């Protein structure tokens, strides 16, 4: 913080600013309000966008784009005027999506910067007792610690979380004790600064200089967004209790102790933390601080995995491998690709921008922008979903938007001094997200306009040139009820055949640990001879294994029961029931194949230059990402992939 000849009043004003920032943003906004705005137990800016999308029928997972049995459908009745406005305005929807994407990209940037600055700042404590230790050595040690931390991510948070409580317990207990000692020893009257008078007096005296100093004070609230984004790893009540009864009072006392020390040693502000620690407890505090920095880094890494998973599920980010490391918590996930990219970027930030000032400036930009975006989205949630009284919404928005807006304006002055780093990261991520979103939107639009309905399927099968060949075919499709994938028409026209028994299969992911056996497979007759629909539902802890006869037997048993119930309700001859069941058994014994589509865009000459560039970029992403279907253990001899070009 660029303090010039700081006085007692300066330090009292800064502490007052930090106290009210912690209280209003940490306690009121995040712990009391934001944690209630979860989406299926998930938190973060993209979870807020998901809530708004479903309620206002916008985006891919709106009610009008899904079938009536969809788990994402929440109804559209009693919509607010604001919700109707977003449905009608394309510009408003795009602005909302941009805000959500920016928030997510900034949080990922936080996941890169927090481990870097936390571990680097903690390890820098070695240099106080050993001035001969070079900055390069501190950077190397910090990089090694981070590499080990990232390599441990594959074991899951639950495997190492038993260490978190003792570490954070030691941190939240020891640092306030040092703070209390410092208060008594240096400046017992420090708590008079809790009066807002000192905040106003500070700005009155300092003017523009006081405004610029906010770029440093905003760092006192770092980690608050992770507190919200980590909802998938910890439940709401545990986060609230931990923050309100341990973290918050610990920070208040620690910052008070540091301020008391600095009032008596005004020129030590460049390294106020380690210098205010008594020499007798220096090394124990150093060890605890380093371990606490690692735990803080872990929380941002976990939050990054969570927001990536949310965006992948909502189809706003290229599909990466997501591994659930816990069978009890849906939000506890790990992504190998994301993990190693984060590791490389974190180490690069330390080695390239080892000077803590540049990383701190970048960190301030991330923290303030993410907080401001959360305020905007939470305001919309209050209006559209919670139906909060207008006066309370206005009070919330006025207080937090003004407060965080001032912080953002202050940290923006630091863009030339390292603040550009998160913008570079966010621009790159946003370009990836927009390219993927644009391509997926074009693909869904094509599939909805070229879908094969049952009437069209009947016409295709009635063609004398189309044969019904023996065997059982599982045809995987991502469009259900309203129609079937255009790949089906492409397949029939070119193969001139369809199996005598064809089951159009949709795999549906549910936000539950495990799906009950009786709800796992849902089948129905589609009205054409030998043509059925099947939905396979699975949870995040289920193992989706389609190998062998077990899966086939489960589906055919469900089909047999459905045929008996379906035809039993019609004035049909029992012989018809037996014939259909016999045809099903005969097809199963004859041959079983699994057909899935593989699509690409054909970029014609009539395609606009912008669409040409974005679709080409989407094809690069699509070619290098994971398959839309889960890893199915289907034997290679039973797999058939049908390629099709979608005309852009």
Automatic annotation (TrEMBL):
Keywords: Ion transport, Membrane, Potassium, Potassium transport, Transmembrane, Transmembrane helix, Transport. GO terms for cellular component: membrane; plasma membrane. This is Potassium transporter. It is a multi-pass membrane protein. It holds the Pfam family K_trans. Potassium transporter. GO terms for biological process: potassium ion transport. It comes from Citrus sinensis (Sweet orange). The lineage of its organism: Eukaryota, Viridiplantae, Streptophyta, Embryophyta, Tracheophyta.
């Amino acid at each position: 913080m660029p303090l010039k000849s700081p006085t007692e009043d300066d330090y009292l004003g800064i502490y007052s600013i930090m106290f009210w920032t912690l209280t209003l943003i940490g306690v009121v906004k995040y712990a009391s309000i934001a944690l209630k705005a979860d989406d299926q137990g998930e938190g973060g800016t993209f979870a807020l966008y998901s809530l708004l999308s479903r309620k206002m029928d916008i985006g891919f997972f709106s009610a009008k784009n899904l079938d009536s049995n969809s788990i994402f459908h929440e109804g559209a009745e009693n919509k607010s005027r604001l919700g109707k406005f977003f449905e009608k305005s394309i510009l408003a929807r795009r602005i909302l999506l941009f805000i959500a994407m920016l928030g997510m990209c900034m949080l990922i940037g936080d996941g890169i910067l927090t481990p870097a600055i936390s571990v680097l700042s903690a390890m820098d404590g070695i240099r106080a007792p050993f001035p001969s230790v070079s900055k390069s050595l501190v950077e190397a040690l910090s990089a090694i610690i981070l590499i080990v931390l990232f390599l441990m991510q594959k074991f899951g948070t639950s495997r190492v979380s038993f260490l978190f409580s003792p570490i954070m317990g030691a941190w939240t207990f020891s640092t306030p004790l040092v703070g209390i000692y410092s208060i008594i020893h240096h400046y017992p009257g420090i708590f008079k600064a809790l009066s807002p008078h000192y905040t106003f007096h500070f700005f009155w005296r300092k003017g523009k200089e006081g405004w610029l100093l906010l770029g440093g004070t905003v760092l006192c609230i770092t980690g608050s967004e992770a507190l919200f984004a980590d909802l998938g790893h910890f439940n709401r009540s545990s986060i609230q209790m931990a923050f309100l009864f341990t973290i918050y009072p610990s920070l208040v006392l620690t910052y008070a102790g540091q301020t008391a020390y600095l009032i008596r040693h005004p020129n030590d502000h460049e390294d106020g933390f380690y210098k205010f620690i008594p020499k007798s407890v220096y090394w124990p505090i150093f060890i605890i601080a380093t371990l606490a920095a690692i735990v803080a880094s872990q929380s941002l890494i976990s939050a990054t995995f969570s927001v990536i998973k949310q965006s992948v599920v909502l189809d706003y980010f290229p599909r990466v491998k997501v591994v659930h490391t816990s069978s009890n918590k849906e939000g506890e996930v790990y992504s190998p690709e994301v993990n190693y990219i984060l590791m490389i970027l974190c180490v690069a930030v330390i080695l390239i921008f080892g000077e803590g000032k540049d990383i701190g400036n970048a960190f301030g930009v991330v923290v303030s922008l993410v907080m401001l975006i959360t305020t905007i989205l939470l305001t919309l949630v209050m209006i559209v979903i919670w139906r909060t009284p207008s006066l309370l919404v206005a009070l919330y928005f006025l207080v937090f938007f003004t407060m965080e807006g001032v912080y953002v304006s202050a940290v923006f002055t630091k863009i030339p001094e390292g603040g550009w780093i998160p913008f570079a990261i966010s621009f790159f991520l946003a370009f990836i997200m927009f390219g993927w979103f644009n391509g997926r939107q074009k693909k869904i639009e094509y599939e909805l306009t070229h879908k094969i309905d049952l009437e069209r399927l009947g016409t295709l099968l009635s063609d004398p040139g189309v044969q019904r060949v023996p065997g059982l075919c599982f045809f995987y499709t991502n469009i259900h009820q309203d129609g079937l994938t255009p790949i089906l028409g492409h397949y029939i026209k070119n193969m001139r055949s369809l199996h005598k028994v064809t089951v159009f299969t949709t795999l549906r992911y549910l936000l539950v640990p495990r799906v009950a056996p009786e709800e796992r497979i849902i089948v129905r007759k589609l009205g054409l001879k030998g043509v059925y629909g099947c939905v396979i539902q699975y949870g995040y802890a289920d193992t989706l294994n389609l190998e062998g006869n077990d899966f086939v037997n489960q589906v055919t048993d469900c089909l047999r029961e459905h045929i008996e119930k379906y035809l039993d309700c019609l004035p049909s001859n029992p012989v018809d029931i037996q014939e259909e069941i016999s045809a099903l058994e005969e097809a199963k014994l004859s041959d079983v194949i699994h057909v899935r589509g593989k699509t690409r865009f054909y970029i014609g000459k009539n395609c606009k230059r912008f669409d040409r560039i974005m679709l080409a970029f989407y094809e690069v992403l699509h070619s290098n990402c994971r398959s839309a279907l889960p890893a199915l253990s289907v034997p290679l001899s039973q797999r058939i992939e049908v390629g099709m070009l979608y005309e852009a």
